[in-house]
Amino acid sequence: GAQLASLTLWGVRGVTDSGLEALASKGCGAQLASLTLWGVRGVTDSGLKALASAGCGAQLTSLTLGGVRGVTDSGLEALASAGCGAQLTSLTLGGVRGVTDSGLEALASKGCGDQLTSLTLSELFGVTDSGLKALASKGCGAQLTSLTLRGVRGVTDSGLKALVSAGSCAQLTSLTLSVWNGVTDSGLETLVSAGC
């Protein structure tokens, strides 16, 4: 527990908040640099809050949450309150339908942005340009090498322009834009004009 630097639970449907609470009770959290919860449907905000209360956040450089339907902005806010944000180099949020701009704003408020090299947002129906602008306000874009926006309906050219204004494209080597987003030729032209 207390020595774990990386925790990955992928498609383990029998794991719930109780499992994360048990890990947290043994000190798991304070040393975590990487947290991946994917398809672990029994995990909710309560599980993230348990890890946060054990110190999970300040050391995180990689946060991946996917298909954890019980996680909302409240879970991200708990991690942010524990310091998650400033050290993040990789942020992946996929199919976490309870996450909105408020969750991204919470991470940004703790400094998430200027260290990010990889940003993947997928099937987040509550995320809009405002979420990207919050990250951009903290420098998200300057170090990005990989940007994926998939099924994020509220993101438009305005969100891309915010990332570009923060320095996006200078380092970008991978760009994926797909399904249900409001990006047009104008957004792509902005990326190209920035050197993408």
Descriptive report:
With about 200 residues, the chain is an alpha/beta fold. The protein has 7 helices and 7 strands. α6 links the parallel β6 and β7. α3 runs parallel beside α4, α4 packs parallel to α5 and α6 packs parallel to α7. It is globular, with a radius of gyration of 16 Å. The termini are far apart. The relative contact order is 0.11. The model has no long low-confidence stretch (mean pLDDT about 90).
For the sheet with most strands, the description reads:
7 strands, parallel
- Helix and strand element order: EHEHEHEHEHEHEH
Low confidence ranges: none
Overall, the morphology is globular
Radius of gyration: 16 Å
Number of helices: 7
Tell me how many strands there are.
7
Return the average pLDDT rounded to an integer: 92
List the strand order in the largest sheet. Answer: 1-2-3-4-5-6-7
- Give the amount of beta strand, in percent: 15-25%
The assigned structural class equals: alpha/beta
Helix-residue proportion = 25-40%
State the distance separating the first and last CA atoms: 43 Å
